[in-house]
Amino acid sequence: MGWVAGVDGCKAGWIAAIAPAGGGAPVIRVVRRFVELLEGEGAPEIVAVDMPIGLPDRIAGSGRGPEQLVRALLGDRQSSVFSIPARAAVEALDYREACALASASSEPARRVSKQGFHLFPKIREIDILLRDEATLRNRVFEVHPEFAFRTLAGQPLRCPKKIRGAVNPAGMAERRALLAEACIPADVLNSRPPRGAAADDLLDALAALVVARHIAAGRGKPFPDPPGRDSHGLPIAIWTFSADPPAQDAVMSDRPVSRPMIEDAARRIAGHARVTPVMRLGAGALGSEADISLKLECLQHAGSFKTRGAFNNLLSLTVPAAGVSAASGGNHGAAVAYAASRRGVKATIFVPEISPAAKIEAIKRFGAEVVVGGAQYDDAQAACDRFAAETGALKIHPFAAKETIAGQGTLGREWAGQEPDLDTVLVAVGGGGLISGIASWFAGSRVKVVGVEPEGSRALQAALEAKGPVEVKVASVAADSLGARNVGPLVYDCCKDAVDHVVLVADDAITEAQKVLWRDFRLAVEPGGAAAFGALIGGAYKPAKGERLGVLVCGANVDLAKLAVIAA
């Protein structure tokens, strides 16, 4: 798997945020020389660096062309874009000489600022490297952090990063919030920078990483477009990315759960739910002609995507003194219990008799009261409904609530940010809250959303065929998490136009998927969490040649003793 990086200059040399090209949490490094980042295993796909690349022989106006274009878009932050002089001035080692050469090669004549002069050694370092290594010119891109933040915000930022040389807390908070929305993990955002780098250097490197990911996915946007070239063939452009969402028609923009609702949910749960990684398997993996990647939501807090919806409910709605209640086959209950424990709220969870002991133990571990509410999931839901009516507890439904679906939709938003060039995503379906959220995010885009249900539990497929929710019988190895008998009207309305189709996967294929995920990737995944992967390896879904296919691996609350038997 290749890697991408965002890089900024710092006191000790260079600070880099390095991450797998397919997504995942970045690693922060400080190196003395830029070339050290390029040494080691494998060449980078993209390195985005906050340093001028490409030096004209003469300057007309207030700096190089890219600087003039970008500066006009930054509002009050224009002064953050320094004017870099012509090549002869940058190559001068003495400040007075640099000023004289800059004046002689600019119209109108301009001297060199002291801040700009201090950058010259780093500019020369990259300039020499790219002149010597022509292959790097298509991998190392000039970016500007304030321009990246402006793209993320959709407008100039309100607060400066520094005031009179001192860090401005409001400006740092504004930038951290934007990076959190761009799927940078909270623990990285709030970490102490390595020795030799400052906190603002860390944020600038992370902003550059966001741009690098988009450039790697084909969404890069140069200023000017196309880039210019200097006399040595180096490109002259500052890069950002296209922030335009996929086009949506009028029908898709007025959906039960809309993109703005999911955006609001993402802001709400940022720092509460994890940003989970993508594992890129690449073209030809698993004997397929597709380019395959796995979205590892099984690494989410409480072991499943349900944590997203749970937090969105708790952070959206007023919680009464009686606390919250939920019915669950296990994962939703664990997620609500976890979210409630983090928010200091009482939780009562109703589970059916078929719930695995591992899932019940997880719910109890997070401090919730567990009540067995009947033989099947629907029985537990009825018991939960009665409890909420009697006590006034806030009922958090696993799929029949817009707050839940919008929370699950943040997974689709996050996935699109990590893999913006996907063609198709495979998503397991139980009650349908997850696929409703993901389909609501991708609605109107080029991404095809395909549901995966067990052959013995096909509530969504049956609803799509009948053009409305219907009751189905449930009998599957994944029934504890994919065992809803009726998806309900809200899920149907979210999915009827936005889900391309549903495929059915045999229990044997689900079990085989669990085995392969453990054997080949050391991922301990429950049956429901492995269902989408089972559809791929079992042939229920056959991708086209070259198709960019994302497969969701979404649940880790597995009985390890049973997994050991399967994997033996």
Structure explained in plain terms:
Mean pLDDT is 89; it is low at 245-253. The protein is α/β, with parallel strands linked by helices and 568 residues long. The two termini are 29 Å apart. The chain has three domains: 3-241, no CATH class; 252-302 and 408-567, Rossmann fold (3-Layer(aba) Sandwich), CATH 3.40.50.1100; 304-395, Rossmann fold (3-Layer(aba) Sandwich), CATH 3.40.50.1100. The chain contains 20 helices and 21 strands.
Keywords:
alpha/beta; Rossmann fold; six-stranded mixed β-sheet; 39% helix; elongated
> Any idea how many domains?
3
What's the number of extended β-strand segments?
Answer: 21
Strand order of the largest sheet: 12-13-21-18-19-20
- Estimate what percentage of residues fall within beta strands: 15-25%
Q: Determine the mean pLDDT.
A: 89
Stretches where pLDDT is under 50 for at least 5 consecutive residues are 245-253
- As a whole number of angstroms, the C-alpha radius of gyration is 26 Å
Indicate the overall shape.
Answer: elongated
Largest sheet: 6 strands, mixed
Number of alpha- plus pi-helical segments: 20
What structural class should be given to the helix and strand makeup? alpha/beta
Helix content: 25-40%
Q: Distance between the terminal alpha carbons, to the nearest Å? A: 29 Å
